[in-house]
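Quick one, tokens below. Sequence please?
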């Protein structure tokens, strides 16, 4: 099993900042891609940002220039620094990690989600 534990969500005013963290643990051989997704009420889950094992990043257009994704491969942890937050960023944020277990099997695991609320 591979578990992802997220932290760092909360309530912030428009223009504020938050930093999300997600730590992966379990029978992990390697992690390839890690990413953050979000789901607002009544909407589909969408990709916010992703990062490869080599550090290549990808962002949704709506967060480019405001959010920064990074990872610590030694700690199997991914971060999302969110600046200049807007009310439309309000959502439950989920972490995802995909890689290879120590058994050689592939995995794709999700965290439990953390609520981010931006007040106007």
């Amino acid at each position: 099993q591979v578990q992802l534990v997220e932290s760092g969500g909360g309530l912030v005013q428009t223009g504020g900042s938050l930093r999300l963290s997600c730590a992966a643990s379990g029978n992990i051989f390697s992690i390839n891609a890690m990413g953050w997704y979000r789901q607002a009420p009544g909407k589909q889950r969408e990709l916010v940002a992703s990062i490869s094992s080599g550090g290549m990043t990808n962002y949704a257009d709506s967060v480019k220039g405001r959010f920064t994704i990074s990872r610590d491969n030694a700690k199997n942890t991914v971060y999302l620094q969110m600046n200049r937050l807007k009310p439309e960023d309000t959502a439950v944020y989920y972490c995802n990690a995909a890689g290879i277990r120590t058994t050689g099997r592939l995995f794709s695991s999700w965290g439990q989600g953390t609520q981010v609320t931006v007040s106007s």
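The longest strand covers residues 28-39. The CA atoms of residues 13 and 29 lie 40 Å apart.
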